[in-house]
Amino acid sequence: MKNKKFLAMLLSLVMIMSVLSGCSGATTGGSVADSVTDPANRPVVVYVADIFNTLNPFDTGAFSDSYVFNQVYETLAKVDDQGNPQPYLAESWEISDDALTYTLQLVKDAKFQNGETLKASDVVFTYEYAKQFAAKNAYYAMVKSVEALDDYTVKITLDKPTPLFLSHTQQLPIVNEKFVKENNNDISKVACGTGAYTIVSYDPAVKVMLTRNDDYRLGAASIKDVELRYVSDASSAVVSLESGEINFMSVPPVMATTLEDNANFTSQKTLPLYTAVIAMNTKVKPFDNKVIRQAFSYACDKQSIIDIAYEGFGTVARLQAYTNSFGVDFTGAPDFSYNPEKAKELLAQAGYPDGLNLTKEFGIKLLTIPGTFHEKVGQVFQKNLADIGVVVELQNTQTPDEDVESGNFAIMNQGATYRSDFSYNECNYGVIGIGGNNYSQMNEPYVDEMFAKGAAETDPEARKAIYKELINFLIDYCPGIPVFHKQEIYFWSSGLNASAHDSGMFPFFVYEWSWK
What we know:
This protein is 30% helix and 22% strand. The protein is of the alpha+beta class. The longest helix is centred in the C-terminal third of the chain and has 18 residues. The protein starts with a helix and ends with a strand. The N terminus is likely disordered. It has 17 helices and 23 strands.
């Protein structure tokens, strides 16, 4: 009798666990380490450096959130490591001669995790829904109209030529119209994509639990269960990596040297087209004064920051883009290389010959991200400012992306991605990036006009000339302090077949992985 009761209880437990999949909301769940799985198909735990903010893919630009979306959703195109858009949910496309009309053919076998088949109407709905949120404005602002010509053909018309339009589509996951409407147009805590994984539980301050979508059109993923685990302190995360609790991690350079010769791990270095930047809000005093911003730029010892905060794994930056991006040319551009004496001169010119105390005089603290290299960036820069007579206190923030996107800050060290074409930087410097990656909140009509002019120009050399002029203006304007372009170092358990990509927003897809 006791054996029968035990078997009944066990069967009930199995049945309960089996329903924790599909298009679900924010339930709580235990660690994948607690789940009962086949040893040959054990779960994988991925380290995430920041908390999760939302499951709405259009209401955030945070890397942590994108790691979730990349597993659950798919997009019209997917950008490869060379910066070229490849077919994804759109199996092919045609572009009109004036580069204003894109006609895309959708795959016919994609199904959402609620059983609905992907249709052109879902693409139309996705763009209309996305327009309600500012965070992704830079990726849809150029779209004039989206039409469903039939169930599997979409016509997208732009109001201006946009060289990176197909690449931009990777920032807009396709959602199911029926699912969104059934949830009263609120998908901040629920998700339903066509991707390889579904959400089991969502605890934004702790972890996101995923399980594979067995009906995925490209075949079920090799790894069944995934935990995306937030750890506030990178050193603690490395300890978990070494103990086997975490299987995949972007390791800070200061800690990477201790793991490089460890046979328990495989490593890979990537160039994620990422710039560490000290953002200054141009709408907040005293950073509304360009002379102050220029003084702070001269005060920044970028090479020391690279050496101390990132173990030398970086290149001094002059812009939120580097010469590996088309159109970036620094020949003859203004140079704000480290020069504390020049910084003092500019402070005096701005009316502060004896320096200033940002915290006491303006109530300003330098926001930084604890437990990451950003914290050391803040510490070194704090000393740089002290050397020119500027005092500022540091303050940790657990919501760095929300702070910069909302403009709820004065000065903060952050980071932003760029792309293989400088036209992308319109979202970092143009008005369309306000509420997103335009951290400085700058709104200069000249900047928007030049980006539009560059996008409309079809001659590559003419485009380069346009961007060169614009870059000279941006460097002189000093909306923020580009500190360095970083190198990312990933480590994963030696028993895991994994890979990382040259992207800050899209560094990994668990679908590509397997256990050996």
